[in-house]
Amino acid sequence: MMRKVEDKGTYIARIASADNLEKVNRTSKAVKPRKSIYLKYIKRIIDLVITVPVFIVVLPINFIVGVITLFDVGVPVFFKQERTGKDGKHFYLIKFRNMTFAEDDNGNLLPPSERVTKFGTFVRKYSLDELLNFWNIIKGDMSLIGPRPLPAIFDERYSDRHRMRNAVRPGLECPCIKTDNHMRFYQEQFENDIWYVENVSFIVDCKMFISLVKMVFNSKERGDHAKIKGGDFVGYNDEGEAFSMRRIPTKYEELYLEYLSSFKNNKI
């Protein structure tokens, strides 16, 4: 039986975890999640009071986007991905598809940038594919404000500290309100998520909600925010900082090239 080459992200995540995860866990500060009546009861009530009417209002938009998506990329219309929620519980996040299943000559899917349609680019630019997330909020999987839920395949890659971002219900976004700087890297995002877990309150949520609204209606802020996306979380570098597929340390790039070379030479 012919062996299959290991995916680049999976390979590097495995090596980086073996190299650095134990050290990161040993040297990272413990997280102390905040507990309050607001977090336990009031936050959920506010989510429903805001989300239910909004979900009803955007239903026609979702219908229109769904119909256009059907003609644009065909079936299935929806993209479903397993995400990690509160206390590590998994749920499915559903979005409208915006990529085709186009393949290269070897039968492998083309890069995402080559499969996104023109309508898909439009949908992403204005976050129309995110409107379905309101259903996850109504179900109780998510909240309006909270750490963005990431794919379940990342679970084993987190340090003990960053895994605590799942101590609260995930949200549409968790904007940074401590500084004026936009979060561009996973290390910044994760540390902001941990700050939220330790400081969540009604006032903090109000400030973040205002920041979220500003981002939605500001094309420059949406563009800056999008720069953190598009690169899967992989692991931690030698300095203990989280990195993505867009910022792979040179040594891991070289190790993967050596692995590919070895695989090719021994392939039968």
Automatic annotation (TrEMBL):
Keyword Hydrolase annotated: no
Transferase is among the record's keywords: no
UniProt cross-references to InterPro entries, sorted A to Z: Bact_transf
Keywords tagged on the record: Membrane, Transmembrane, Transmembrane helix
Domain Bacterial sugar transferase residue range list: 43-217
A Pfam family this chain is assigned to: Bac_transf
Signal peptide start-end: none
Transmembrane segments: 45-71
Recorded superkingdom: Bacteria
PANTHER family reported for this sequence: COLANIC BIOSYNTHESIS UDP-GLUCOSE LIPID CARRIER TRANSFERASE, UNDECAPRENYL-PHOSPHATE GALACTOSE PHOSPHOTRANSFERASE
Family statement drawn from the similarity comment of this UniProt entry: Belongs to the bacterial sugar transferase family.
Name by which UniProt lists this protein: Bacterial sugar transferase domain-containing protein
